[in-house]
Design goal:
326 residues, alpha/beta, 34% helix, globular, Rossmann fold, 8-stranded mixed β-sheet
Length: 326
Amino acid sequence: MNLPTVRIPGVTHRHVEAGGVSMHIAEAGEGPLVLLLHGFPESWYSWRHQLVALAAAGFHAVAPDQRGYCATGPPGGPGDAAGVDQYTIMHLTGDVIALMDALGAAQAVVAGHDWGAPVAWHTALFRPDRIRGVVGLSVPYRPRGSAAPIATLRETLGESFYMVYFQRPGVAEAELSRDPQTTFRKILTSLAGAGPPMTLIPAGGGVLDAAPEPAELPSWLTQDDIDTYVDEYASSGFAGPLNWYRNMDRNWELTSAWQHAPVLVPALFIAGDRDPVLSFVRADGQEAVLPKLTRSLILSGCGHWTQQERPAEVSDAIIEFLHTLA
């Protein structure tokens, strides 16, 4: 896979072999390792501000394109028809540990946003010997419950909820890839703090029908940013990323040994008070399952794209947390 063409001063790019996956990473700085895991539909680029800030603060910041995404692509390389079952939480957390091994790091702090947050939480849950701190953005930590998630969502919200809609192979891929400029413009603005909000999917429609067309871009998002995401998704598309959603019930089955299990490493949680995720995943009461939670930072007026909408506040909070671990 080709390396990204966008240039950020101080940030370099390369591929590393991580457990059989040729993983693209963006990195900056030297010092203790901090891994930055993106969400959907994003890439390493969502952490562009934090890469620079963490490097300046004396850390080795590394933001990979995760399994199935962008310049990493599917396991097996470009064009590989990797099965849906190659994107389970066991694979995704295994990729994090394999990346640490490839970088020669015995330990790291791992931060994740959106889908990256469950990967970060579960890496800390599975391997507390390797993870010395964890930061979750947008998605609170909730231990495995007593019912499979997609079945529960389908029962409560029907086919109109985006996670349920994403379960049908080929459908969302076709919709999202039809006009990537529209895809990224609508999704990034409709889940932001200042944008007209995304709704449930209308009957017979797609996820983009639930996302209003913005009158203008918010101050934190430029046309160049949208162009970058479009370029990065051009090679690998949306199938791999969507396969993460198609493993939600399988992940529930695979993690039965961790029923109601707490994450025992030091933790930080950051989210926006206008993030729609908090309407269906409660952020209160995390102290019971994160006994070493140092702070729960809720940013006023911020939507879903936490580290992009509020880069300085997020970077400062992460750096402060990292200093408590020294």
